[in-house]
């Protein structure tokens, strides 16, 4: 039996899971439990025999994980007999404490908890998942893989905000960056597609999902990234504003009387595509734009302008890029965004071939013309597989 890793991604009201065969990288089983702590809970469990949809209300992550383990049992493939060698956990914020995945012990748990102020919405459910899974599967190593870890290679010039040094240090204020697991995965895939050694490859990775970020990768190491202390900075996102003048916050505080929580809500949940166009899903924004909705038309322009802005910046940071890589929901599926965000960059060596760009495909592929100085490519991301690989490489050594 080959070694398998159970990958767990625990959100505040959900548990996403995947059993990964690390021999060939395939998912043998995957699923999603939603609405933990609410009514109308639902578990979707999928393996090679098909999909099971189970209606089940679960009060907390502990019961949630038990229901998931029960689904494995009921399909005749108990987890205990799956060749499981480790559990990999997605953790959003590792602060400046974790530059690599780590086998979880009580100290690691305490550190993840101590980092909660940096990711108040994400680290607590990530930690709850780890605690529950360690109790349920006590004989296995549990590996935490941090979204921020890949960006711990940022030079001080890129991670330092020009703030009063002691205030910043006291409160951990610096750029951390996110989406690192995804960027790490697609960087390896991009180098493979380019037939280059990752160590000799410069990439600009555009992860465009609900959250969106740009990262400059030199030789497999992150050297600049658009998300900052929190995932709010940088590109325009589904509901987050991305970059703005911090003075806007003082202005709204003074002139509109908005409290800190109102401002947080505005920037994180009511801005981005939703704020501009009234819809946070890019497919709906396109639909409205095609009907001539001027808010949707402007939202798309702002979205692509911001991407172009970062591509130019990161070309300058890297000096030279071998490829611009699109990934995640919008990056992988939206030919319009890909071509518009890179239009007018031919003199920088960046060009999109419109026929190649329009071809759908689930596999990594190049969408720039042959002979282009900078390749443009679409690389589907796979964060769960990357977590499984990082977990196995840690416990196998
Ligand atoms: P998450 O950041 O939650 O992991 P995804 O990477 O799955 O998100 O991206 C989700 C977003 O991708 C959706 O909100 C939607 O805007 C976008 N998306 C998905 N499919 C398409 C498509 N075919 N065309 C354009 N956008 C798409």
Fold blueprint:
Blueprint: E1 4-10, E2 14-21, E3 26-34, E4 42-47, E5 50-55, H1 61-74, E6 84-91, E7 102-103, H2 106-114, H3 123-136, E8 142-146, H4 156-159, H5 165-170, H6 180-194, E9 202-208, E10 212-218, E11 221-225, H7 247-255, H8 260-269, H9 272-277, H10 282-290, H11 294-318, E12 323-327, H12 328-333, H13 335-341, H14 354-358, E13 365-366, E14 375-378, H15 383-395
Parallel strand pairs: 1-6, 6-8, 9-12, 12-14
Antiparallel strand pairs: 1-2, 2-3, 3-4, 4-5, 7-8, 9-10, 10-11, 13-14
Helix pairs in contact: 1-3, 6-15, 10-11, 11-13
Bound molecules: adenosine-5'-diphosphate.
The gist of it:
The protein has 397 residues and is an alpha/beta fold. It has 15 helices and 14 strands. It has two domains: 4-146, Nucleotidyltransferase, domain 5 (2-Layer Sandwich); 196-383, Nucleotidyltransferase, domain 5, CATH 3.30.420.40.
């Amino acid at each position: 039996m080959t070694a398998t890793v159970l990958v767990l991604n625990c959100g505040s009201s959900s548990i996403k899971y995947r059993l990964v065969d690390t021999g060939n990288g395939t998912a043998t089983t995957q699923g999603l439990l939603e609405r933990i702590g609410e009514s109308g809970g639902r578990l979707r469990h999928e393996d090679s025999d098909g999909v099971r949809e189970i209606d089940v209300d679960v009060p907390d992550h502990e019961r949630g994980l038990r229901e998931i383990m029960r689904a494995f049992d009921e399909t005749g493939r108990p987890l205990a007999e799956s060749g499981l060698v480790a559990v990999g956990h997605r953790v959003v914020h590792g602060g400046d404490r974790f530059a690599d995945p780590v086998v979880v012990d009580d100290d690691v748990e305490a550190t993840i908890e101590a980092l909660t102020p940096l990711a108040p919405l994400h680290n607590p459910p990530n930690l709850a998942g780890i605690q529950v899974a360690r109790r349920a599967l006590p004989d296995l190593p549990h590996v935490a893989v941090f979204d921020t870890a890949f960006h711990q290679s940022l030079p001080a010039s890129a991670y330092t905000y020009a703030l009063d040094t002691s205030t910043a240090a006291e409160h951990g204020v610096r750029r951390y960056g996110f989406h690192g697991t995804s960027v790490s995965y697609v960087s390896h895939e991009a180098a493979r597609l380019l037939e280059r050694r990752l160590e000799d490859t410069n990439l600009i990775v555009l992860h465009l999902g609900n959250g969106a970020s740009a990262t400059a990768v030199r030789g497999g190491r992150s050297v600049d990234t658009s998300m900052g202390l929190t995932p709010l900075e940088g590109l325009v996102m589904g509901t987050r504003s991305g970059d703005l003048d911090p003075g806007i916050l003082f202005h709204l505080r003074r002139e509109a009387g908005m409290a800190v929580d109102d401002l947080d809500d505005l920037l994180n949940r009511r801005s981005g595509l939703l704020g501009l166009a009234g819809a946070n899903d890019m497919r709906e924004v396109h639909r409205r734009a095609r009907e001539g909705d001027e808010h949707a038309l402007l939202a798309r322009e702002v979205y692509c302008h911001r991407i172009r802005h970062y591509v130019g910046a990161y070309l300058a940071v890297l000096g030279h890029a071998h490829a611009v890589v699109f990934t995640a929901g919008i990056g992988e599926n939206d030919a319009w965004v890909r071509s518009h965000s890179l239009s007018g960059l031919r003199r920088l060596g960046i060009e999109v071939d419109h026929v190649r760009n329009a071809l759908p495909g689930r596999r990594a592929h190049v969408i720039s013309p042959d002979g282009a100085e900078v390749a443009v490519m679409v690389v589907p991301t796979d964060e769960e597989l990357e977590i499984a690989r990082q977990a196995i490489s840690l416990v196998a050594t």
